[in-house]
Design goal:
This protein is of the alpha/beta class. The protein is built from 9 helices and 9 strands.
Length: about 240
């Protein structure tokens, strides 16, 4: 089977999906809708993934670019000739695919598209309903997204709830890691490096540093909380447009 994976940008989530798809017996093409400036993932595309050249994926996608991108998508579909397109977010990559009339379409919600974008105005609501009505299936990450999809017309039995999760081979407590014969891993633990003893209560944020996720609110809230509870510590991992 020839599958076209069509996403808004290139993120760690895209990398993980593409890496898994690349290990299947299927032929996988990757189409990138836009490049929003600040890189969200710096790893090369996984092995076995074909980057599909087209008019998009080079700069931020604007509303006025819609017709040009739609025409470009039609051309990319004719050239790659996929058996299935896996596309998201709902009102962007998946919506363009639905407008192009391609079937079957597996739409993927990235959370904010149904939690925030779908109710922005009548246009966004229409685009949401239009896309879901033309989707053979939808992938979402939680029950809240599932319920919202149903409210916008998606049939419940065609929704797969697939939590993003984490890579347990990479992220696990030191005590659970295999013993290697030396204690270097334990001695170099992040707590020890930062001189945070067991009395310190550590908070961890893994959200991208963008206004959508409220990382500035988190930072301000932590300052207020730490004044009352000096044992608090905060790690804000990642990067993003709010880095400065």
């Amino acid at each position: 089977m020839r599958i076209l994976y069509f996403s808004r940008d290139y993120t760690p989530h895209d990398y993980r999906f593409l890496k898994a798809l690349g290990k299947t017996e299927h032929q996988i093409g990757y189409l990138r809708l836009e490049r929003r400036g600040h890189p969200l993932e710096d790893r090369e595309l996984p092995e076995g993934i074909d980057l599909i050249p087209w008019v998009g994926g080079k700069e931020p996608a604007r509303f006025q670019d819609g017709l040009r991108l739609l025409i470009g998508l039609l051309g990319a579909i004719r050239a790659y000739n996929p058996d299935l397109i896996h596309a998201g977010p709902i009102q962007r990559a998946a919506f363009l695919t639905a407008l192009a009339g391609f079937r079957p379409l597996v739409s993927m919600s990235w959370g904010y598209d149904l939690l925030i974008d779908a109710s922005r105005n009548r246009w966004w609501t229409w685009a949401t309903r239009f896309t879901l009505k033309r989707s053979a299936a939808m992938v979402g990450d939680c029950d809240t997204v599932r319920s919202l999809a149903v409210s916008y017309g998606m049939e419940a039995d065609r929704i797969i709830t697939f939590p993003w999760g984490i890579d347990l081979e990479h992220f696990k407590p030191i005590a659970e890691r295999p013993q290697t014969g030396d204690e270097h891993a334990a001695e170099s633990s992040l707590r020890k490096q930062l001189e945070w003893d067991k009395d310190k209560f550590v908070l961890l944020s893994t959200r991208s540093w963008s206004s959508l996720y409220g990382v500035e609110d988190l930072a301000h809230a932590f300052v207020r909380a730490a004044h009352q509870h000096p044992e608090l510590r905060l790690l804000i991992l990642g990067d993003g447009p709010l880095a400065p």
